[in-house]
Amino acid sequence: MQTKVIRITDPIETEAHLNEAADILRSGGLVVFPTETVYGLGGNGLSQEAAEKIYAAKGRPSNNPLIIHVHDPAEADKYAFAGDLYDRLAAAFMPGPLTVILPKRDNIPYATTGGLETVAVRCPDHPVAHALLAVCDFPVAAPSANLSGSPSPTCADHVISDLTGRVDMIIDGGQCEIGLESTIVKIDHDKEGEYLTLLRPGAITCDALTCVCERVIIANAVLEQLKEGERPLSPGMMYKHYAPKIPLVLLDGDPADVLAFLQKEQKDKSCAILCYLEEMPQLKDENLFLVGARDDLVTQAHTLFSLLREADKTSASIIYAHLPPRDGLGLALYNRLIRAAAHTVKNI
Ligand code: TXA
Ligand code: MG
Questions:
Q1: Is the pLDDT of residue 202 over 90?
Q2: Which ligand number lies closest to the CA of residue 198?
Q3: Which pLDDT value is given to residue 240?
Q4: May I ask the CATH class of domain 248-347?
Q5: Signed CA dihedral, 177, 308, 166, 47: sign only
Q6: 327 vs 101, 199, 202, 204, 332, CA distance in Å?
Q7: CA–CA separation, 332 vs 139, rounded Å?
Q8: Spelled out in words, what is the top-level CATH class assigned to the domain 4-172?
Q9: What's the pLDDT tens digit per position in 237-251?
Q10: Taking residues 54-74, what's their average pLDDT?
């Protein structure tokens, strides 16, 4: 398949390109588009065939469901049974990096939801995604636009290297601002009323969610390794997550001790290091990747996936990164890194 790569620059040309992209989607094709989190591999969310094509292009098992992207949060009600709590979440966080799991309506095919009775809905906050969704008269189903086994793409080059020849069009909208996938919550009920289960942490933090819904429960698989035979609440947590080819080890401990450890490791072996700005002057500039200042979690989120791709291209025998804090945006970084490291943490 020929993949057309479109760079978004001029607003008038953009309109023509986005109409072409919408035509491709309408006729069952695949279009990669930028969002504020990561790039998405889009297909018509109402079409079983499009969902099948997405799974094939990505090399992803077809029981790992897709998120449908809508132009306006209120559209959720066309495809799912949204209620009052959804409306409050939408008012607070949409458009934005939040995905909400809702009971699906019949127009959403089981192929899109991986056979589930629920559907994931998201309204992205990115001008190109927004303009594309505006010209589509259907929801756009889109997983992250990486090959299964690669980190989510945060710029068009990542997509081009993973998906050229596998999709009809790639829309290059530059770097994704956030760099980590959306927060996913499921609306649940028990005797005490409604609550949210956090299935995947992201830029909408637990504290922010708590402002809208008092009870937010973090699903086990966010922080811990699933036990043998344990079924996760989100199918995505079941599959082997992205892990670099070179073993990744997370370091935890007093900053001075961790720095001394890294200095020694640089002498003894060939290692790649995802380091903090504060450490840079004291480390050898060899396979050294700057994730951001120690307290600048926003920059760390923005750079993480790209640097993991880069570090994995080196000839190092091991990659070191810091164990992030487990609160705020740190929880999202923690969740991605701990899975990429297969829960390997070295306490120093
Ligand atoms: O930021 C994002 O969410 C990006 C952009 C493109 O929107 N999309 C994304 O999609 O990360 P994907 O498919 O790579 O991750 C979606 C996750 C998967 O782990 C999937 O298992 C879970 O959402 N998911 C989707 N539908 C679900 C459902 N009905 N119930 C539980 N989990 C669901
Ligand atoms: Mg993904």
A1: yes
A2: 1
A3: 55
A4: alpha beta
A5: negative
A6: 23, 15, 11, 12, 8
A7: 26
A8: alpha beta
A9: 655 577 899 999 999
A10: 93
